[in-house]
Amino acid sequence: MKILFCSSEAVPFAASGGLGDVAGSLPKNLVAQGQEVRVVLPLYGQIKEKYGEELKFVDSFNVSLGWRNQYCGLFTMDYEGVTYYFIDNEFYFYRQTLYGYGDDGERFAFFSKAILEALLHIDFEPDIIHTNDWQTALVTLYINVYYRHIQKFQHVKTIFTIHNIAYQGQYGYNMIADTLGLPQEWAHHAEYNGDTNFMKAAIENADKVSTVSPTYAHEILDPWFAHGLDPILREKQYKLVGILNGIDYDEYNPKTDKIIVKNYHSDAFIKNKAVCKAELRSLFGLEEDDSPIISMVTRLVGHKGVDIICDAMQGLVDRGYQVVCLGSGEAQFETFFNDLAARYPGRVGVKIGFIPALARKIYAGSDMFLMPSKSEPCGLSQMIALRYGAIPIVRETGGLKDSVKDSQDGEGNGFTFANYSASELYECCMRAYNGFQDTKGWRVLVKRAMKGDYSWKASAVEYIKMYEETLSLW
C-alpha cells in the first residue's frame, strides 16, 4: 500500500509531545513491513536551520485559502528509509514554537490544503491519506470538497487519528467562509455548536476514525471524556477503531542505552539495575537503604492525576517509599513537591523541569513508576517504564488500561486501580510495596514486564489491518 502520513510534527524534525513520537516511529515501522510510506510536515524554521543543506527543492505553487492566495514551497529529504515532504511558507511556519499563535487555525488550514496541492506536484499516488489531530483534520474535508473530481484523488481513502480529543481546533463560526473558504453547502461539515471545529469536520469526512488505544476509543463516546464531541462520535461509531501506540525499541533499550550508568536486559538485570538505582539515589540525594523508589516523570497538571498523588504522597513516604519526581506544570503542584522534598530530605527528590537524559536514568533506577491519570489516550511513559523494569502503578483508563494489567493474577505486569481517588491510589501503591518485599516474586514480575512487547512493530501490524479494511470499504 501507498500511504501519505500527515502530521504537524515528527521526531526528529520537530516535536512537542506524543504525536511527534508517533509520526517519527510508525511510518518507519510500516516501511519495515513492506508498505510505501511518505510523511508530510510543515517546514518550521528549526527544521530549515538544522536540515537545510539536506533538503531538496521539489516545486513551488500557490494555495488558495478563502480570499487568500498564498505561496507554498515543497521540499523533500529521506530519513531512515522514509521520504519526508516539507510544506514551506515562512509567514506561517518560521516561528519560535510550533503552536500557540492567534492565527493557528489559518496556519493549519493552509497546511491541510497545501498537502493536497502538493500531491499534484509529485509522482506519488497514495491509497491512504492518514491525518492526525486537528492540525491536519481539514485534509479529509478538503479532498471531498475540492479534489475528488481529479483522477489522482478518486480512489484515495482517508483516515483520521485522534491523539487527544481535548484539542479540536475550535474557532469562531466566521472562519468557515473567511479562512476555510468552504462553499455554503459544505459549511455544516465544519460547524459544531455554532463554531468552527476542525476535528468534527474530520470525523464527518474521514473513511475511518482511529484513536491511540482501544479503551480510549470506547471512552470518547462518553461525555466525561469527549470534550463535547460524544454525540457526533456516537453517530459515527461505525468508523471508530482503537490501536495502541508503541515505543521505539531502538531508542528505549536498557541493553544498549548509552545514557544509563549500567546496561541490563530482561534475562540479566538484578545487579546492573541495582547500580542504576544507586546512581539515581545519588542524583537526588536519597538515603541508601532497602526502600523501593517510586518515580514520576510527568507534567504536573491536574489531568495527569497529580492532585490525588498529592493527597496520598505523605502517607506513602511515611510507610517507607522513597520518591523521585521530574516534571513541571501548575505552580501549586510544583510548590507541593518542592515543599515535600524540603520536609523529607533523603526520602524525596524533586527536579522541576524536563530533562530527557535524567528521565532515562529515572526509568532505569526506579522500582515503580506512578501514572494515575484522569484520562490518558495512550501514554508512552508506562511503556518505557515497563521496558526498563520500573513496574507501573496506573489508573485503569485509556492506553494505561490496555498496556498495564494488574499482577495479582500472577500474569500481569503492574498494579492498577479503577476509580479516581487518593485512597485507591494509596491502596494500590501499598500492594506494590508489599509485593516488593517478596524479592523472588518481584524479580519474576520485573522480568515479565521487561519481556512484554510494547514496540511499534506490533502496533504497525494493527495499522496495516486498518488500512486494508479501509481500502475494502468501496
Report how far apart the termini are. Answer: 16 Å
**What is the CATH H-level superfamily of the largest domain?**
Glycogen Phosphorylase B
Major beta sheet, specifics?
A: 9 strands, mixed
Rg (CA only): 23 Å
Examine the coordinates and then state which fold CATH places here, giving the name of the CATH topology of the largest domain.
Rossmann fold
Please count the beta strands (DSSP E, at least 2 residues each): 18
The outline comes out as elongated
Structural class: alpha/beta
Fraction of residues in H or I helices: 40-55%
* Helix segment tally: 20
State the CATH architecture of the largest domain.
3-Layer(aba) Sandwich
Q: Unreliable runs, pLDDT <50, ≥5 residues?
A: none
Based on the structure, what is the oligomeric state of the protein chains? single chain
Mean pLDDT: 96
Biggest sheet: strand arrangement: 3-4-5-2-1-6-7-11-12
Relative strand content: 15-25%
Key phrases:
alpha/beta, 2 domains, 20 helices, 18 strands, elongated, six-stranded parallel sheet, Rossmann fold, nine-stranded mixed sheet
